[in-house]
Amino acid sequence: MNCFELAKMTWEEVEASLEKVRLAIIPVGAHEQHGPHMVESCDAVLAEKMAVKLGERLFPYVLIAPTVNMGVSLHHMNFPGTISLKPTTLIALLKDMVSSLYHHGIRQFLFLNSHGGNQSTLDVAVNMIKEEMDVELFYAKTTSSAKKAINKNVKSTLFGHSCEREVSEAFYLAPELIRIEKLQKGDIQEAGRWRQLRPGCALQGFYHYEEMTANGCIGDAQLANYEKGRQIVEEALDTLSSELIKVLKIEEDSIIRSNR
Amino acid sequence: MNCFELAKMTWEEVEASLEKVRLAIIPVGAHEQHGPHMVESCDAVLAEKMAVKLGERLFPYVLIAPTVNMGVSLHHMNFPGTISLKPTTLIALLKDMVSSLYHHGIRQFLFLNSHGGNQSTLDVAVNMIKEEMDVELFYAKTTSSAKKAINKNVKSTLFGHSCEREVSEAFYLAPELIRIEKLQKGDIQEAGRWRQLRPGCALQGFYHYEEMTANGCIGDAQLANYEKGRQIVEEALDTLSSELIKVLKIEEDSIIRSNR
Amino acid sequence: MNCFELAKMTWEEVEASLEKVRLAIIPVGAHEQHGPHMVESCDAVLAEKMAVKLGERLFPYVLIAPTVNMGVSLHHMNFPGTISLKPTTLIALLKDMVSSLYHHGIRQFLFLNSHGGNQSTLDVAVNMIKEEMDVELFYAKTTSSAKKAINKNVKSTLFGHSCEREVSEAFYLAPELIRIEKLQKGDIQEAGRWRQLRPGCALQGFYHYEEMTANGCIGDAQLANYEKGRQIVEEALDTLSSELIKVLKIEEDSIIRSNR
Amino acid sequence: MNCFELAKMTWEEVEASLEKVRLAIIPVGAHEQHGPHMVESCDAVLAEKMAVKLGERLFPYVLIAPTVNMGVSLHHMNFPGTISLKPTTLIALLKDMVSSLYHHGIRQFLFLNSHGGNQSTLDVAVNMIKEEMDVELFYAKTTSSAKKAINKNVKSTLFGHSCEREVSEAFYLAPELIRIEKLQKGDIQEAGRWRQLRPGCALQGFYHYEEMTANGCIGDAQLANYEKGRQIVEEALDTLSSELIKVLKIEEDSIIRSNR
Amino acid sequence: MNCFELAKMTWEEVEASLEKVRLAIIPVGAHEQHGPHMVESCDAVLAEKMAVKLGERLFPYVLIAPTVNMGVSLHHMNFPGTISLKPTTLIALLKDMVSSLYHHGIRQFLFLNSHGGNQSTLDVAVNMIKEEMDVELFYAKTTSSAKKAINKNVKSTLFGHSCEREVSEAFYLAPELIRIEKLQKGDIQEAGRWRQLRPGCALQGFYHYEEMTANGCIGDAQLANYEKGRQIVEEALDTLSSELIKVLKIEEDSIIRSNR
Amino acid sequence: MNCFELAKMTWEEVEASLEKVRLAIIPVGAHEQHGPHMVESCDAVLAEKMAVKLGERLFPYVLIAPTVNMGVSLHHMNFPGTISLKPTTLIALLKDMVSSLYHHGIRQFLFLNSHGGNQSTLDVAVNMIKEEMDVELFYAKTTSSAKKAINKNVKSTLFGHSCEREVSEAFYLAPELIRIEKLQKGDIQEAGRWRQLRPGCALQGFYHYEEMTANGCIGDAQLANYEKGRQIVEEALDTLSSELIKVLKIEEDSIIRSNR
């Protein structure tokens, strides 16, 4: 065993792991449309894969909790198959998970999130759980810290959903998510409020995803490939693991010796 | 494609499937200790496997929703690794799922549940959702309708959790859940309130699982095997699919022709 | 006084009783249609009568709380007069009751329930209250433990609601609930989903009671009589009191000496 | 039948009654200490008795719903036996009742309340239910409109809880609530914040009842008698029924002819 | 500084003040129509002004929290501009405020309320907060304790909303709230249920304000003036401060010496 | 009147304004420590001032709702005087406001927020309200769109709370918020987790503000002045009003003609 995945452990194995484990990583995904070329569990699968890779790098100090396989996806609801949780449902779920793992002795938590639409809810969850429990709570987007690799590899102007970047990550982490024969550019809508409301704009607000793209994806997924994905994922893992080492207050050597 | 698994479909594929699909099966599992010989995701995995097999039998009339991979497991909380949702959290989650799928046009739902501890919450969920939405709601234990096969195959007096029956099911459906070298009998506690509170007793009530069994399992898992599992699972699938055919108001032939 | 009924006691009497009392029995009924031959408070009255009789047998160790006179009856809502609580309302009510009695020093509780439609909600209530309070919680159907007497006396194929069994219980416990001149068989509907969804069937689910019976009752209430009721009730009381004696950890003699 | 009491009716009788019934009276009581000389169900019983008497006077235009037999009694919690609902629980219960009766066609409701501690919660309930349902909602204290009779008959300076007035009402309506041999004056505490916080004072606020009276009652219950109770109750019924006739928009004659 | 207004203090100043402060006054207003001659923030402004004046009289023992500038105003919703909070929202807000100030060491609280429609909700809030926190909670209408001055000065039969009394208070405390050129009598509706439901009547219940007055005010605001307002406000301040001195358990001299 | 401020209008004036008004601006602030040199209502006052200035620029098409004067400030709770709302409370409050204004005919809303700690909650609020009401919802930080002016004027490395930028804004908009004689640099803590968790870092998470700065402010407020504030505020107003003109779908000329 080179990663503590709760889903694959017996209680005796968990009990043994808890002698070393300090932090639980809770993978948080979504179940939502990802254009014509990715399946709807995309975010859930990528979050889980990233969590396990991160768990390997931080073995034996972290434990991977079960994956939260649905998230806040109201803006994708008009594409068939999308399932959206109310933010309060997601918060309740995370609170129950933290509370259960707290019972087993864990006091540090990372919500490792692959879906932009969950970020605000995670921030609120952190506030609400912190008010009630004496725990340390973090959250992170799976690969957004891979700034260099993204800068170098992603050529599309728009990216962030079933795009050049995400499809590349999937090529590296979970190619079964991709319908290669369907890879296509986002069918971006010229008109519409969405241009006013993108991240960084003066106004933020709710818009349905189909106002922005008729086929549900953005950027040019045809430019995606395994190598781009590898670079992005590995840089993100480097950054996240080095940040978590500080949070865990452990010596980097103690990890390398045991795991790599 | 011989089964509509939402997690493995793009939105265009979902859109096409909705021309035929009438009912969504929502697999409901748990994340909890399963003794020294089964991993903690056992119920989630078995519910999902059963749902897919049922989806194959009822193709193209049903769709398999993402799996609810945690459930109500308060009674297992004293075994390391168990995660328990509050019943209200599970109900909120199911309600959001039903509500999202309703938006896509589905009006019939089956919660296919592998964990006894969820049954009451599912019954309450059915009541609460029914009060608010015009849908048809069913729930079922994955294999408890396999009465003949269970009767014939299961020799242990006690069964129901990481037992002869459940391990057999796993041998057939998901052997990766089993630690074969660890298979053992339940370490049943002689004393204790649990004997008074088993299903069918005059009193029902809450007891911690360790009051009943020190190693977290019951019956004799060493008697489990693939063939027992096959018979139990297949009888359950026969029964469930024939019941669902009535509910779907379809002709059995229409399924056989398309799928088997 | 040979039974501690909270509704009939002053605070000074309650204070004195609490020197002996260990467990509170909370009678849980319903307010719902019971066919043309029983009044709608049937379940509330029977639960209360049973609770008092049980309280007499376990005097001075138990105390009878006020009766919960409405329950979860959504499936009966299409018959005039039925009142249904949301499951969350019933849980809130029980939690406030347990919490208040906890304040007075009681740590063991039995929800004595006469209405099948409440069972799941009671099970969920037990889970939710247990998670927040250090108490011992039990629930029981009023007479379902009278297996022998039911087997021997009840001739109707279907029973469970304003039926041969329930009317018999009322003849013995509260004949004022019965309109003798109206006693009739259930007007069972041949068609309909209900046959698929009865207890023990592969599928469970919600159906309106009028889908099963046009007059709101089942079985043949014309076969009901006082003696059948006496045998059923007394066997149930025997069973329940002997189970509670174990839970109370008292000597049976200590009761007999004080009360019978 | 000269009063439509839902608890005593079959569904067929309810169905027939609904041809005339316009308004439902929901009796709201409490379960709380009433000094050494009244039992704890006092408020619940008196509310129910008053409701029935009012129902007789307004027959066949009103229907008496099941009694809410517990209320908001936090201030009495330090006397053994008191059960207190959270205000949100009481509101949920009332909302479910109104909503169920709305389903049966009723659009006017009176919460007939015997317990001062419920008044604010009833007012809030009225606001909250009104925001969601198109109904007409009223609430009233059972006898506080009997201003003349109270003025004439009640000699105690303080009254309002297990006092000269309330015990008199019980002598008339339900003498079984009284421990005649225990009748006594309230054991009023000289010091304490309560004097500052009585109705009509500049400040309102929470105080425990034992801060005001050591034995849990106020005024001089020894001055209570049947005749005082009769005058108070009958004046209240006169007032309430004449107010309700206006609300019902019926002719007084139509009642007299049918009922008295 | 002769009054501790939290809104106007830095944290260092708050820290210093907390050496003396015992009680926090939370001004509670509303945002609702006040007829053609007062602006909609009327209640919020008057509550704040009263709180500050009271804070000056009780300096340095009390602290004025930020003003709750919206309240429960469902009955005014049909007049343009009114904003109404659900009672549960107002309670949540007050609970968060009390809880935050509790964290800073305060244990006594006064909700100083200028809007009749909030009274019941405040009473419920007091009950609900008291059940969870060990604090002392009071509430008061801003000027209703000025019984003599009101009796002497107010000539209108009806008063209580944008009336002779309230406009007078505004002349003294915040004349900018008044449209002097628009001062007018309430346009009282002869017919309608409201007469039955006024404070003190046998029935209480919900009615829309326009059922009572077509222009949204009552009484004769043309009779209002500064001097009437001064007398009412000053008597109320006298009464409230003398009541609070008892509650604070301080010597009156200690205030006079420091502040006046 | 050159700006529709709800707090300063009578219902008749609101009614007239609604002929033109399309969008409501809800100023959202906070009540929290702002270092030794700003008072705790800082965010509430600045949000309100910005809203009014924006309302003037968009007259007569927008209306300014009452200010939400407290927000989510858990991270500041260890500085005396801070009041923090639970995110769910803030969402409930905003929902009630939107719902009330919807009743008056408004369908577009901007939450104009001055406090970073509210942003996630506002995003969640937008999602939750959108799911229930057919409205258009936007939110914006008051001045963060003034990118050029901030870039040009702000010299401090860190800014964002009682800093060079915010104090400059206050010099221009509300100098009474500033204790000029107390202006000082943030007392930044070298050690601590906060450096890992700043906006843009790989990890996000909760930290108490005192972990970052001992005096509660950051950057160098001594560099703040009126002119910097003017440039920042005016650029933000330019940007926001031009964005809102698009959202309002009005001609810019129609505003200029009527207002400027």
From TrEMBL, chains A, B, C, D, E, F:
Its cofactor is Zn(2+). Gene3D superfamilies: Creatininase. Keywords: Hydrolase, Metal-binding, Zinc. Belongs to the creatininase superfamily. PANTHER family: 2-AMINO-5-FORMYLAMINO-6-RIBOSYLAMINOPYRIMIDIN-4(3H)-ONE 5'-MONOPHOSPHATE DEFORMYLASE, 3-DEHYDRO-SCYLLO-INOSOSE HYDROLASE. This is Creatininase family protein. It comes from Siminovitchia sediminis. The lineage of its organism: Bacteria, Bacillati, Bacillota, Bacilli, Bacillales.
